[in-house]
Amino acid sequence: MHNDIENIVFSQFVSQTVPFELIAIQELFKRCENSAYDLSKPHRIEFHCLIIVTEGKSTHIVDFKEEALFTGVMIPLTKGQVHSFNKNPNIKGFVISFDETFITQNVSVR
Hints:
Layout: E1 6-8, E2 20-24, H1 25-34, E3 43-45, E4 48-62, E5 65-70, E6 74-77, E7 82-85, E8 90-98, H2 100-106
Parallel strand pairs: 1-3
Antiparallel strand pairs: 2-8, 3-7, 4-5, 4-6, 4-7, 4-8
């Protein structure tokens, strides 16, 4: 099963020059439905993201462990982690996604 896990790169669903995106969870699901991609299938991300839940309850699988999603929860996902959403999540919120180059090339130390 672990060999069947698809790797998702940031640019696969985002076509912008800055490797950073803030998107509503509902919009993410619409985008993936339009591209026939199923977010409930385990997949490995090749970028970093933060899932922020503002309303509702559901579950999320991170590295094959179930995590509860409810109002106020933030789940960080790092590059290389395997995760999947519930098939029909009853939640609202946001996903912040970014490639590591967003940090390394855009943050300066003073």
